[in-house]
Amino acid sequence: SPAAGGTVPAGLVVMEFRFNSRIDRGRSRLTLTRPHRSQTVLPIRDDGPEEFLRTTLALTPGAYTVRWQVLAVDGHITRGDVAFTVTGP
């Protein structure tokens, strides 16, 4: 979450990405592209199950994209994008 093409309310947003196998969080990455096209590498929380990437951040209204890139414990790199919209209060 957020769902691809989905919407979330402005404010504190919890992002959670679940994968079908354990991942190496230390070598995985979440990159946020903001409405004005700047990019930010997001901190990944190190708690919870080993097949999840989680982060929390405050967002204002606009169109965003999160690019995820994970390294599975078997050595395979997988990546993808999730576009979503943050709606006003």
3D structure, described in words:
By secondary structure, this protein is mainly β. The protein has no helices and seven strands. It has strands spanning 7-9, 11-18, 29-33, 39-42, 52-59, 62-71, 77-87. The chain has a five-stranded mixed beta sheet, with no helix packed on it. It has a two-stranded antiparallel sheet with strand order 2-5. A hairpin with a 5-residue loop joins strand 6 (62-71) and strand 7 (77-87). The two termini are 19 Å apart. The model has no long low-confidence stretch (mean pLDDT 91).
User: Uncertain segments of ≥5 residues (pLDDT<50)?
Assistant: none
Summed up, the helix count is 0
Main sheet properties: 5 strands, mixed
The mean pLDDT is 91
Globular, elongated, flat, extended or rod-shaped: what is the shape?
elongated
What pattern of helices and strands is seen along the backbone? EEEEEEE
Helix content: under 10%
Lateral strand order in the biggest sheet: 1-7-6-3-4
**In whole angstroms, how far apart are the ends?**
19 Å
Rg over C-alpha atoms, rounded to the nearest angstrom: 13 Å
**Strand runs, count:** 7
Strand content range: over 45%
Class computed from helices, strands and strand pairing: mainly beta
Describe the secondary-structure layout:
Elements: E1 7-9, E2 11-18, E3 29-33, E4 39-42, E5 52-59, E6 62-71, E7 77-87
Parallel strand pairs: 1-7
Antiparallel strand pairs: 2-5, 3-4, 3-6, 6-7
